[in-house]
């Protein structure tokens, strides 16, 4: 393997180089070119910090990941980070109604402009507008839908190409207080197609690239490391190893799994009719659940819900969120997932048409995904532990800090809030020329954590319990708490002693 050496990185086939062999090349190194890492890098450049580098394990940027909603808090964060990024993301996004096939254009606008939640009897229990303007009117900022890949691409295009490197999987970090920096070790692999979308990776799987004979090692140094490497964050694992946070190094199973079927055809007419007339009413998508989600323990079958969608006439698909034990789906086949969904539907007294739909699911179209969480506050430790989001010159952001299931569509939105706060604080470090003042850096990251943690705790609680959907009062309060905040005040509060 030929060695590549530059002033910015040192490539070596072993890790035996001494610290003095390295150059302190970067002010900030961002690990992970997902939405949060890229938004942080854009925010830093906007604030005059140019010596930055973003590293990602993916071998090439490819169309992976799912669709996500950016809500007023995430969009507002992006606007504050960099107006050009905000505009670029809006341009790359779609509204739900624009994405509908032309043959649905005659339907009443309500069916395309609103996402309805219906109870098992088909009655609407909540309606969420999909229109940017409605959200803007309510909260002073809109809402868009965008695929993970398009979001990544829109953000990536705002950074110089040479500041985002693919095929760099970070495997270790080492604090070097004597050099006023942190060293980061990566492997680049020429053979392995790593799944670039961290959320899909199995947190328990062995990362074997380092052992591959085809891999080469590279090391970098930076004054600050921003770890945006997703829910299965390697940096989090390194930071937490042998510390009081060690039980929180890998994500915890949230208690929910998604079982989905892309497409079901050949559905008996009476089942089709019931699904259409009772639940979809011409909408392309609907969520069906009990009137009230369980208010007690996660795991009640009452927490089951199904997102039913129809794209082509007579063809349906679904995503079911099931509150089940992890063992009940691991190492099982598609037919067992169907069986499990049917059992849960039976216990939760779901209607016949939905059970029939699931029964007809073709095995080749089935997928399952357990949802994981990095809890903001431990639930089963006494006293409760709040895993730290930083250590010295290293700070965790986005899913690496507080990943969670997507039920309230807040993962990326909260990560963009992190990006704004962290970029603002690092800019202040740069302005004060405090790069070599470790205490100042630690204090800044503690501020980030103390500002963000209470809101994150609230959002995680809402996500796992899904309470805001239950009553108008909860929904209203949640909306106010989350979407109607004054970001000027928030940013000012960072610098009040
Ligand atoms: C089905 C589903 C629906 C969702 N819907 C929404 C929604 O509607 N709204 C919302 O806000 N959020 C949603 N989310 C959550 C959202 O996708 C995540 O919160 C968001 O992507 C987190 O961004 P991130 O940049 O922190 O991490 P990621 O998006 O996971 O990106 C991490 C990046 O780090 C890279 N990486 C990982 N490990 C390493 C390593 N060791 N070295 C180098 N690079 C590494 C990965 O390749 C990846 O590019 C959803 C998630 C799922 C699964």
What can you see in these coordinates?
The chain is of the alpha/beta class and 497 residues long. The chain has 2 domains: 19-65 and 153-251 and 376-493, FAD/NAD(P)-binding domain, CATH 3.50.50; 253-372, D-Amino Acid Oxidase, Chain A, domain 2. It contains 15 helices and 18 strands. It has helices at 35-46, 72-81, 83-92, 109-113, 132-139, 148-156, 234-240, 269-280, 334-347, 352-359, 399-402, 411-431, 438-465, 472-483, 487-493, and strands at residues 10-12, 26-31, 52-55, 67-70, 114-118, 124-129, 144-147, 164-165, 169-176, 181-189, 215-227, 252-264, 285-289, 305-310, 316-323, 366-373, 390-391, 394-396. The strands form 3 sheets. Strands 1, 2, 3, 8, 9, 10, 11, 17 and 18 form a 9-stranded mixed β-sheet that branches. Helix 2 crosses helix 3 (83-92), helix 2 runs parallel beside helix 12 (411-431) and helix 8 packs across helix 10 (352-359). The longest helix is centred in the C-terminal third of the chain and has 28 residues, at 438-465. The radius of gyration is 23 Å and the shape is globular.
- Under CATH, the topology of the largest domain can be stated as FAD/NAD(P)-binding domain
Distinct small molecules bound, one entry per kind: flavin-adenine dinucleotide
CATH evolutionary superfamily of the largest domain: FAD/NAD(P)-binding domain
SS summary, helix count: 15
Number of strands: 18
- Strand percentage: 15-25%
Second rung of CATH, namely the architecture of the largest domain = 3-Layer(bba) Sandwich
Query: Percent of residues in helical segments?
Result: 25-40%
Mean model confidence by pLDDT: 86
Which spans of ≥5 residues are poorly predicted at pLDDT below 50? 1-22, 97-108, 193-210
Just give the CATH class of the largest domain: Alpha Beta
What is the domain total for the residues?
2
What is the radius of gyration?
Answer: 23 Å
- Gross morphology is globular
What does the largest sheet look like?
A: 9 strands, mixed
> In terms of structural class, how would the helical and strand content be classed?
alpha/beta
- N- to C-terminal separation? 52 Å
């Amino acid at each position: 393997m030929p060695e590549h050496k530059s002033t910015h990185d040192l490539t070596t086939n072993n890790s035996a180089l001494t610290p003095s062999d390295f150059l302190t090349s970067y002010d900030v190194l961002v690990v992970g070119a997902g939405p949060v890492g890229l938004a942080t890098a854009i925010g830093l450049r906007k604030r005059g910090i140019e010596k930055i580098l973003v590293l990602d394990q993916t071998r090439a940027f490819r169309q992976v990941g799912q669709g996500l909603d950016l809500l007023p808090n995430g969009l507002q964060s992006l606007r504050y980070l960099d107006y050009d990024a905000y505009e670029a993301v809006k341009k790359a996004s779609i509204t739900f109604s624009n994405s509908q096939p032309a043959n649905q254009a005659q339907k009443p606008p309500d069916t395309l402009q609103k996402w309805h939640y219906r109870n098992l009897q088909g009655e609407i229990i909540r309606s969420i507008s999909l229109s940017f303007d409605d959200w803007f009117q309510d909260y002073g900022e809109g809402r868009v839908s965008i695929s993970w890949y398009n979001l990544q691409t829109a953000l990536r295009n705002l950074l110089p190409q040479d500041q985002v490197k693919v095929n760099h999987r970070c495997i270790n970090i080492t604090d070097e207080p004597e050099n006023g920096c942190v060293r980061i070790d990566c492997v680049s692999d020429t053979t392995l197609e790593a799944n670039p979308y961290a959320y899909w990776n199995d947190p328990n799987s062995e990362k074997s690239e380092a052992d591959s004979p085809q891999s080469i090692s590279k090391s970098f140094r930076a004054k600050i490391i921003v770890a945006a490497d997703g829910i299965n964050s390697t940096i989090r694992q390194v930071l937490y190893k042998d510390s009081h946070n060690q039980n929180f190094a890998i994500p915890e199973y949230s208690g929910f799994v998604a079982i989905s079927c892309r497409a079901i055809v050949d559905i008996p007419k009476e089942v089709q009719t019931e699904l259409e007339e009772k639940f979809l009413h011409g909408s392309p998508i609907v969520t069906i659940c009990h009137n009230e989600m369980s208010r007690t323990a996660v795991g009640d079958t009452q927490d089951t819900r199904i997102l039913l969608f129809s794209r082509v006439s007579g063809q349906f698909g679904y995503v079911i969120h099931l509150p089940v034990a992890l063992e009940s789906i691991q190492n099982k086949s598609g037919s067992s997932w169907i069986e499990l969904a049917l059992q849960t539907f039976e216990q939760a007294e779901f209607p016949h048409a939905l059970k029939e739909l699931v029964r007809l699911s073709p095995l080749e179209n089935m997928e399952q995904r357990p949802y994981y969480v990095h809890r903001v506050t431990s639930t089963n430790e006494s006293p409760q532990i709040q895993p730290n989001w930083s250590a010295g010159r290293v700070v965790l952001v986005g899913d690496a800090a507080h990943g969670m299931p997507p039920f309230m569509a807040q993962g990326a939105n909260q990560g963009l809030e992190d990006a704004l706060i962290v970029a603002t604080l690092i800019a202040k470090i740069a302005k004060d020329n405090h790069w070599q003042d470790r205490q100042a850096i630690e204090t800044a990251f503690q501020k980030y954590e103390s500002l963000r943690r209470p809101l994150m705790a609230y959002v995680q609680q809402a996500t796992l319990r899904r309470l805001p959907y239950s009553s108008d009062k909860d929904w209203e309060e949640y909306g106010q708490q989350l979407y109607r905040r004054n970001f000027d005040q928030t940013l000012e509060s960072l610098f009040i002693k």
